[in-house]
Amino acid sequence: MTVTIVGAQLGDEGKGGVVDLYGDRVDVVARYQGGDNAGHTVVHGGEEYKLSLVPSGAVRGKIGVLGNGCVVNPATLFEEIDALRERGLEPDVRVAERAHVILPYHRVLDGIEEEAKSDSNQKVGTTGRGIGPTYEDKAGRRGIRVGDLLDPDVLRERLEYVVPQKRALAEDVFGVKTGEEFDIASLYEQYRRFGERLAEEGMPVNAGDFLTDAMADGRTVMVEGAQGTTIDIDHGNYPYVTSSNPTAGGAATGTGLSPGVIGDGEVIGIVKAYLTRVGSGPLPTELGGVAGDTPGYDEQGEGENEELAEYIREEGGEYGTVTGRPRRVGWLDVPMLRHATRVSGFTGLAINHIDVLAGLESVNVGHAYELDGETIETTPTTTERWADCEPVLREFDGWPETDWEAVANEGYDAIPANARAYLEYVSDELGVPIYAVGVGPGREQTVVVESPFE
Ligand code: IMP
After folding, report:
1. Active site includes 12?
2. Ligand 1 within 6 A of 127 CB?
3. Based on the domain organization, do 358 and 421 belong to the same domain?
């Protein structure tokens, strides 16, 4: 049986912590999409690990697999592996031969395109890691895959085809002078060596076969999504999205396990008790605003409730793991969660960060939206319509600051009653049981209600 972890909102819901929480029961953790745009913070044995590409289970001695749906920057991969080794860990990471490789020109083009969009409201606010341009090349059938790094002749042939196009795009279309990132000989040398190291370390695999064999041997596989539903390329608020499918369908296409296998298992939706967003795009329940990211911020200045946003941002440490950017903050958006639940078919929920909201007199949620005088309960299909939505707020009594460590030890009933009312409302609205409640950043600071393995 597989357990799939999916972000129900905009990323940064605390997925790494949940993977880590259930990780003891797992032998293999596989990622199915994204690349080093993801940021996982894992606290283990009092140590904090910040990872962007290596699956978080690797910190706990599990086999980590980067599935074919991922885009892999080998430089980041080896940097993270080396850093973990320096801290005394022995990460075992396998990489799908079918996964696409992020090359230096992808990162440059990511930046160029964002710059070109910056005068309009089309800027996505990407992490600048070259994610979009790499997936573009994958869909355009001109990408370079991990398997190609293992065969120098194929690598050279592919580079010779694609690099001049990229150079022309940068120089002739965008008028940007290019450097080493667009030089075939230097790319060839560098990436051939990455291929050698991948092979020496026995990392390349056929992900679908590897995972299927692991399951046949009785091993437990966890499938770990990065980012979240609202930035899914198909189901998110296009174009303010990442270029992959963080929703549960991606778990099948991005690993090579069949939809039947994924659907037979558990799909756990990870929810943050409020909302954060990195980058631009609408956020109907937003509190305050972040310059450069919140649409209209520069003209209108900060929105309402700036102080409250600042308070939640500080309490929750809401700064990007990868970029360090302040995250935009809002109340929980329930229409977004209804949409996420339908798309991914959650069988359980993990709701994180209820401790961050402690001490507030009242806590609101966006229960529905008002759009053109009508009340709607799920997100509209276009981003422009979504931006027109006014949240219909529902107010909950706040809960006090609490000894969360004690709550984690004592269990669900020790959670303050008002916080339980809040959690139960979310569970009832979505028709999905709560499996875990995060009451602090560490894996120990989680109330486990149910294990997906029992
Ligand atoms: P990209 O994935 O770098 O192309 O960025 C596309 C959008 O997804 C931007 O709005 C990013 O801020 C957002 N994004 C990408 N990765 C993450 C993540 O791990 N957490 C939250 N937002 C992310």
Report:
1. yes
2. yes
3. yes
Q: How far is the CA of 293 from the centre of ligand 1 (A)?
A: 12
Enclosing domain of residue 162: 101-198
92 is catalytic: no
Ligand 1 pocket mutation, candidates 121, 129, 235, 278, criterion most atoms within 8 A of CB: 278
Q: Does the CB atom of residue 71 touch ligand 1 within 6 A?
A: no
Ligand 1 atom with the smallest distance to the CA of 281 is 10
Is the CB of 286 within 6 Å of ligand 1? no
Per the structure, the count of domains in the chain is: 3
Residues 85 and 232 in one domain: yes
d(Cα 246, Cα 230) in Å, to the nearest integer? 9
Q: Quick one: 201 exposed, middle or buried, by C-beta within 10 A (0-12, 13-18, 19+)?
A: middle
Cβ of 279 below 6 Å from ligand 1: yes
Co-location of 292 and 440 in the same domain: yes
Helix (H, G, I), strand (E, B) or coil at 328: strand
DSSP code, position 57:
G
Cβ atoms of 39 and 262 closer than 8 Å: no
Instruction: Locate 279 and state its tokens.
Output: 């980058």
Do 109 and 179 have their domain in common?
yes
User: Which of 170, 140, 142, 171 is CA-nearest to residue 157?
Assistant: 142
> To the nearest whole percent, how much of the chain has pLDDT over 90?
83
Per-residue pLDDT tens over the stretch 102-114: 999 999 999 999 9
* Amino acid at site 90: E
Q: Among 40-54, 233-247, 289-303, 355-369, which is the least confidently predicted range?
A: 289-303
Indicate if ligand 1 lies below 6 Å from the C-beta of 132.
Answer: yes
**Dist CA 100 CA 225 (whole Å):** 17
Q: From the candidates 20, 24, 36, 40, which is the catalytic residue? A: 40
Contact 207, 67 (CB under 8 A): yes
Which residue owns the Cα nearest ligand 1 atom 9?
126
Last residue of a domain, one of 224, 253, 268: 268
Strand ranges (DSSP E) for 141-299? 204-205, 221-224, 266-272, 275-277, 286-287
Which pLDDT score, from 0 to 100, does residue 268 have?
A: 98
Q: Please, where are the H alpha helices in 325-381? A: 334-344
Whether residue 454 is contained in a domain is answered as no
Q: 291 vs 433, which has greater pLDDT? A: 433
Q: Is the pLDDT of residue 443 over 80?
A: no
Q: What is the largest CA-CA distance in the chain?
A: 65
Do residues 81 and 223 share a domain?
Answer: yes
**Residue 54 within any structural domain of the chain:** yes
Q: Is residue 453 part of a domain?
A: no
pLDDT tens digits, residue range 307-326? 999 999 999 999 987 778 89
The last residue of a domain, from among 177, 198, 219: 198
